[in-house]
Amino acid sequence: MESAPSRDERRAATAARILEAAQAEFGDRGVEGATIRGIARRAGVDPSLVLQHYGSKKGLFEVAVRPEPDLTAADVPRHLGEVLEIRMRELPPATRALLRSMLTSPDAADAMREYLQERADDLARTSARADADLRAAMLVSSILGLTIARHFLDLPALSDLDPAAIEAIAEPWYAALLPPAG
Amino acid sequence: MESAPSRDERRAATAARILEAAQAEFGDRGVEGATIRGIARRAGVDPSLVLQHYGSKKGLFEVAVRPEPDLTAADVPRHLGEVLEIRMRELPPATRALLRSMLTSPDAADAMREYLQERADDLARTSARADADLRAAMLVSSILGLTIARHFLDLPALSDLDPAAIEAIAEPWYAALLPPAG
DNA sequence: GAATTCACTCTACAACCGTGGAGCGAACAG
DNA sequence: CTGTTCGCTCCACGGTTGTAGAGTGAATTC
Question: Within this chain, do residues B48 and B102 fall inside the same structural domain, yes or no?
Answer without folding.
Answer: no
